[in-house]
UniProtKB/TrEMBL annotation:
In the N-terminal section; belongs to the PRA-CH family. In the C-terminal section; belongs to the PRA-PH family. It catalyses: 1-(5-phospho-beta-D-ribosyl)-5'-AMP + H2O = 1-(5-phospho-beta-D-ribosyl)-5-[(5-phospho-beta-D-ribosylamino)methylideneamino]imidazole-4-carboxamide; 1-(5-phospho-beta-D-ribosyl)-ATP + H2O = 1-(5-phospho-beta-D-ribosyl)-5'-AMP + diphosphate + H(+). InterPro entries: His_synth_HisIE, HisE, PRA-CH, PRib-ATP_PPHydrolase-like, PRib_AMP_CycHydrolase_dom, PRib_AMP_CycHydrolase_sf. This is Histidine biosynthesis bifunctional protein HisIE. Its main location: cytoplasm. It comes from Limnofasciculus baicalensis BBK-W-15. Residues 128-216 are annotated as: Phosphoribosyl-ATP pyrophosphohydrolase.
Length: 216
């Protein structure tokens, strides 16, 4: 089912300057607009690219069915396109998308790019999300030696006290104009803030969404 909110992508692409291969196709890589996770790779032709631009939703070319493929049209897991770029020699597309329903892969996963160790979940693309993943794992599978677990054990009292301390250390590092210290103290502050978020069940993506909403 196509959404009624489909709106043209406010962006133009020189359709005839894209280098389609001998089958008239160009590879398109879909990337999550919030955390940059690579979700899937599929093929587009001139018509599907045009439909993508016209509707703001991802349309591909299905090589197995030899037809246009409106991604998620039957399941509701459509891909709202946030931006569309082509590379320097115009033979590959990069689409940043908002994956409705968080399922991009044919097998029902968030990403087609599963981890090589067989774990299904795709690796988050950005450092913040990777650190947050470890923090959540410590929360859910506590270990004796983990500093993060000690914070969780101390609850808000311990976690928030650390955020206060680290904030003050950021301020002092900035006052001293010590660039390395600023980076180090901000890293500490971010880490402890991520622990607070995990403690309160707030996701990194929730924060990214807020930041995206504020962009102008
Ligand atoms: N990114 C961090 C990170 N940044 C800072 N810290 C710790 O935060 C503390 C910073 O506090 P301070 O500078 O005040 O140092 P401190 O005096 O030792 O702290 P306190 O004894 O006063 O609590 C240090 O102990 C640092 O080791 C971190 N600890 C963990 N991580 C991440 O969390 C993951 C899990 O860590 P563990 O839980 O230790 O396995 C790691 O893989 C990292 O990715």
């Amino acid at each position: 089912m196509a959404t009624s909110e489909a709106t043209p992508l406010n962006q133009s692409i020189p359709l005839d300057e894209i280098h389609y291969n001998e089958q008239g196709l160009v590879p398109a890589i879909a990337q999550d607009y919030l955390d940059g996770t690579i979700l899937m790779m599929a093929w587009m032709n001139r018509e599907s690219l045009q439909k993508t631009l016209e509707t703001g939703e991802a349309w591909y070319w299905s090589r197995s069915r030899q037809e246009l493929w409106h991604k998620g049209a039957t399941s509701g897991h459509i891909q709202k396109v946030r931006s569309l770029r082509y590379d320097c020699d115009s033979d590959a597309l990069l689409i940043t998308i908002e994956q409705i329903g968080d399922i991009a892969c044919h097998t029902g996963e968030r990403s087609c790019f599963h981890q090589v160790d067989g774990k299904k979940a795709p690796p988050p693309a950005d450092t913040l999300s990777q650190v947050f993943e470890v923090i959540c794992d410590r929360r859910d599978n506590p270990t004796e030696t983990s500093y993060t677990c000690k914070l969780f054990n101390g609850g808000d009292n311990k976690i928030l006290k650390k955020i206060g301390e680290e904030s003050a250390e950021v301020v002092m590092a900035c006052k001293d104009d010590d660039k390395d210290a600023i980076a180090s103290e901000v890293a500490d502050l971010i880490y402890h803030t991520l622990v607070a978020m995990a403690h309160h069940g707030v996701e990194v993506k929730d924060v990214y969404r807020k930041l995206q909403q504020r962009r102008r």
